[in-house]
Design goal:
Layout: H1 2-39, E1 45-51, E2 54-60, E3 62-66, H2 68-73, E4 81-83, E5 87-89, H3 91-100, H4 103-112, E6 113-117, E7 121-124
Antiparallel strand pairs: 1-2, 2-7, 3-6, 4-5
Length: 128
C-alpha cells in the first residue's frame, strides 16, 4: 500500500514537471521569435549578430518533405532525390534545378516537394 502512494506522488510530480516544461518551451519559442525579429534575420540560414552587448547566432532552417506516391508513379533519373527504401532530397541539386531546370522539371518538383520553416534557434556565443 505504501508503494502505490509513493508512485502516485511521483507521477503527480512528473505531470507537474511536464506541464512546467511545456510552458517554458512556449516562453522560449516566443523569446526566440522576438530576438529574430529584432535582429532583422529574414532568410533561411545562419548568421551572427551583436545583440544586447553579446554575439548571438541565429539559425533558421526549412524542413523538406516529398510526396512519395507521386515519386513512385513517375520516377525519372534527373530528379535530385536519392532513391532507396525512402526518398531523400538533395537540397543543392534541388535548388539548382529550381533555378536552372526546364519548366517541366520545376513544375514536377513543385508538385512533390513541400517546405515549411523548421524550429529556429538563437545561441549566445561565449565570450573568449
Amino acid at each position: 500500500m505504501q508503494q502505490s502512494a509513493y508512485k502516485g506522488g511521483l507521477l503527480e510530480r512528473l505531470q507537474a514537471v511536464r506541464i512546467d516544461i511545456a510552458e517554458l518551451e512556449k516562453s522560449e519559442a516566443h523569446l526566440v521569435e522576438q530576438i529574430i525579429k529584432a535582429t532583422g534575420h529574414d532568410k533561411v540560414g545562419e548568421a551572427t549578430y551583436d545583440f544586447e552587448g553579446k554575439k548571438i547566432v541565429v539559425a533558421t532552417k526549412e524542413n523538406v518533405t516529398l510526396d512519395k506516391a507521386v515519386l513512385n508513379a513517375s520516377w525519372e533519373e534527373w530528379m535530385p532525390i536519392n532513391r532507396a527504401y525512402s526518398y531523400t532530397p538533395r537540397l543543392k541539386d534541388m535548388s539548382a534545378i529550381m533555378s536552372h531546370g526546364t519548366p517541366a522539371q520545376r513544375k514536377f518538383l513543385a508538385s512533390v516537394v513541400t517546405t515549411k520553416a523548421a524550429k529556429p534557434s538563437v545561441k549566445i556565443k561565449e565570450e573568449s
